[in-house]
Amino acid sequence: MREELKVAIQKLDGHDDLPLPTYMTVAAAGMDIYAALKGDATLLPGDRMLIPTGIAVALPEGYEAQIRPRSGLAARNGVTLVNTPGTIDADYRGEIGIIMINHGKDPFTVKRGDRIAQMVVQRVCHVRWELCHSLSETTRGEGGFGHTGREG
Fold first, then answer.
1. DSSP letter (8 states) at residue 23
2. What is the rounded distance in angstroms from the CA atom of residue 92 to the CA atom of residue 95?
């Protein structure tokens, strides 16, 4: 059983023709987000660009929206997002922007209405740090940065 959360969303002026973020399948975790460009935008290999979405949201306190790449764009074109996952905080009310980057070999054109990213809404908690002199022991200990793949 999935939990549903009612979230206020605003379509910014001039973007009534674009769909709201949409779950593409019944069990999808992320909603596809659409490009709200006035015209086409071409990302040359190595280029990055902030793409507008034409929407703003009012997340309830205790939630965030994570902006993630679309796997199909990455696999087929080498196009992904620069800061992933990007975080939309509950107190942000501005337009959601998507920072795309072209890691592919060919130019990539983004058109108005293209599905450019996914949004996943998650609960978050705030941490209250408890300063201590030592941490509890674990089998892993301080092993990191690929330590489980080392031989010997």
1. E
2. 9
Token pair for 34: 């659409």
C-alpha–C-alpha distance, residues 61 and 72, integer Å: 32
Q: How does DSSP assign 83-136, residue by residue?
A: SSSEEE-TT--S--EEEEEE-SSS-EEE-TT-EEEEEEEEE---------SS--
| pTM score of the predicted model | 0.87
Domains, the chain: 9-127 (2.70.40.10)
Q: Between the CA of residue 68 and those of 5, 118, 149, what are the distances in Å?
A: 20, 5, 27
61 with 125: CB under 8 angstroms? no
Tokens of 99: 């920072």
- Residues of the chain scoring pLDDT < 50: none
Contact 10, 20 (CB under 8 A): no
| pLDDT tens profile 40-55 | 999 999 999 999 999 9
Dihedrals phi, psi of 74, to nearest 5 degrees: -65, -45
- The pair of three-digit structure tokens given for residue 53, joined into one six-digit string: 């979405």
